[in-house]
Amino acid sequence: MQFYDIFNGDADGICALQQLRLEEPRASVLVTGVKRDVRLLERVNAAAGDELTVLDISLRANATDLKLSIHPHPTLTETLMESAEVFFGQATHVYRPRR
User: Fold this and answer.
1) Digit-coded pLDDT (tens) for 42-96
2) Could you tell me the residue ranges of all domains in the chain?
3) In whole angstroms, what is the distance from residue 99 CA to residue 92 CA?
């Protein structure tokens, strides 16, 4: 699993990342650009399971690349939730034969 921090190179992006990493320290690949360099997500070659932290970028300029970087089902949290539901007998996605 690879972690990416993607942020605009202006003060808002830098400050947002600094505040986040002070609270939640983590080694990551930094992806940034100068203030008007807004197409940042196209620089990331993320794979399933990688985590992207995206701060202060133009959604209009990055929407296509954002769509391509999201791998919806099942996410790790969905898998954990389903496991807990199986434990409590409340899972809706697991076949349980009638007894």
Assistant:
1) 889 888 888 988 887 777 777 787 777 666 767 778 888 888 888 888 887 777 6
2) 3-72
3) 17
